[in-house]
Amino acid sequence: MNFAREDLACYSYDAAAVGPLPDVVAFPHTAVQVMQLVRYANRAGIPVVPRGAGTGCCGGALSAHGGILLSFENMNQVLSIDTELGVGMAQPGVTTEKFQMAAERKGLFYPPDPSSARICTLGGNVGHGAGGLRGLRYGTTKDYLVGLEAVMADGHLLRTGFFSSSESYDTTGLLVGSEGTLAIVTKMALRLLPMPEDATTALFIFPHAQQIVRAAQRVLGLGMLPVALEYMDQKALECIRAHGAVNLPAQNGYVLLVEFCGRRRQVEEEASQMSQLAKEEGAVVYDRAIHPEERDKMWALRRALSPSMAHAAEIKISQDVCVPTGAIGSLLEHVDAIARRRNLLIISFGHLGDGNIHVNIMTSGRPAEKRRAQAAVEDLLRVVLSLKGTLSGEHGIGRTKASYLAWELSAQTLVAHRKVKAAFDPRGFLNPGNIFSSS
Ligand SMILES: Cc1cc2nc3c(=O)[nH]c(=O)nc-3n(C[C@H](O)[C@H](O)[C@H](O)COP(=O)(O)OP(=O)(O)OC[C@H]3O[C@@H](n4cnc5c(N)ncnc54)[C@H](O)[C@@H]3O)c2cc1C
């Protein structure tokens, strides 16, 4: 099959980076085809990069070394939703939303909810160990993946958890977040929950970021566990106002979106407590929605943010840093200081409940400003590590953060990681250059 350059170009970027073109793109229909292709690539020493929808934010689904890009567009079927077992099975190319809706039609609930759910795939979610809006209450992809089938570097099929009769090491857990460097996932089994009885979404606007941080800490301190506690800074709101096609409150400020779900009476009590507490902390806007369409309209504000930011600057360097929840206030102060010191627009938002803050350093393509932006990235990562945080909360290391991995991990830990990689992929042809910069 011949590929035009413009066809290959469609597979040469993700949400963070543009890379060289792959030599070919393969669209397997079955695991057997993946096995054959991997055997061939292994013998010939050709790189193989698995790719879902390419929404990753760290350059992980790019063929940086040429070779075969393995796209799962044709393996996009929900295979079963078993209501008795509470388990769904799917191929890797199924979008997260398609799987959520298939579960919902059977009265079940698949909680992992990356904001990209409409387009990203389950294979990519496993590759990056994706989190999302509901992570605080329900956990992330790793908490729902109960088994998988994956093609190993030697072309054999590995079956774990739900698909195997016995297992000593937790290979399922090892493959979550392995970013396509250890094996290629061809089927997965995912745990499903009963649908919550009721849900309420509330939107607050505060004059200051630290008021939101205090409100969030008080909520958690009271033992409430909202489904989502989403934060957006003032610049994020301004950006949506300028570029997003959604209805917004007139006031400017810092946004907190909170969602509660569970039994009706409990949801009602928690939402009322939350609104009281938000008023005490200084919220100037309070709005609440119960009906699904109204709740969806509120969440539209959050969904409008990423597309709006695309208009705000030529380049967006997005860092999904994560700190202990008690350190969020300090992180946000440092981010303001970095923005002032480096004279840059920085937009922050994220999942407050698990300390996962997306810091977006916006820059033009001008060399001097790009250098300042790069310096700001390094300032930020140093601050995060000094606050006992981590470089990536949910987007992975990929290629864009590979050179910083040694800042976080000790030399011994890095050696151990490389040994795991070498045990799974001795020839190093599965997604080379991903996670480990020099592989
Ligand atoms: C607007 C926007 C919002 C986002 N919000 C969130 C969010 O809330 N939470 C979050 O966690 N992420 C978020 N992301 C990041 C991204 O959507 C997730 O990382 C998602 O899991 C990537 O899925 P994908 O199908 O696009 O994977 P890709 O980007 O194609 O690939 C991701 C990684 O997985 C590997 N991979 C893909 N398929 C397989 C497979 N079958 N076997 C083995 N490895 C594989 C790839 O090699 C790559 O390393 C967001 C991104 C955007 C653009």
Would you write up a description of this structure?
- With 439 residues, the protein is an alpha+beta fold.
- The protein is built from 15 helices and 17 strands.
- It has a 7-stranded antiparallel β-sheet with strand order 14-11-13-12-16-17-15, sandwiched between helices.
- Helix 7 (209-221) packs antiparallel against helix 9 (264-281) and helix 12 (328-342) packs antiparallel against helix 13.
- Flavin-adenine dinucleotide binds next to strand 2, helix 4 and strand 9.
Structural descriptors:
single chain; 439 residues; alpha+beta; 15 helices; binds flavin-adenine dinucleotide
Topology overview:
Blueprint: H1 5-9, E1 24-26, H2 31-44, E2 48-51, E3 68-71, E4 78-82, E5 87-90, H3 96-105, E6 108-109, H4 122-128, H5 135-138, E7 145-151, E8 157-159, H6 171-175, E9 184-191, E10 193-194, E11 198-206, H7 209-221, E12 228-232, H8 234-243, E13 254-262, H9 264-281, E14 285-289, H10 292-303, H11 305-309, E15 315-322, H12 328-342, E16 345-351, E17 356-363, H13 367-386, H14 405-408, H15 411-424
Parallel strand pairs: 1-3, 2-3
Antiparallel strand pairs: 4-5, 5-9, 6-10, 7-8, 7-9, 11-13, 11-14, 12-13, 12-16, 15-17, 16-17
The chain binds flavin-adenine dinucleotide.
Strand content: 15-25%
Uncertain segments: none
Bound molecules: flavin-adenine dinucleotide
What general form does the structure show? globular
Q: Tell me about the biggest sheet? A: 7 strands, antiparallel
* Continuous helix count: 15
Please report the total strand number as a whole number: 17
Helical residue percent? 25-40%
The end-to-end distance, rounded to whole angstroms, is 30 Å
User: What's the alpha carbon Rg, rounded to whole Å?
Assistant: 22 Å
Structural class: alpha+beta
Give the strand line-up of the largest sheet: 14-11-13-12-16-17-15
Mean pLDDT comes to: 95
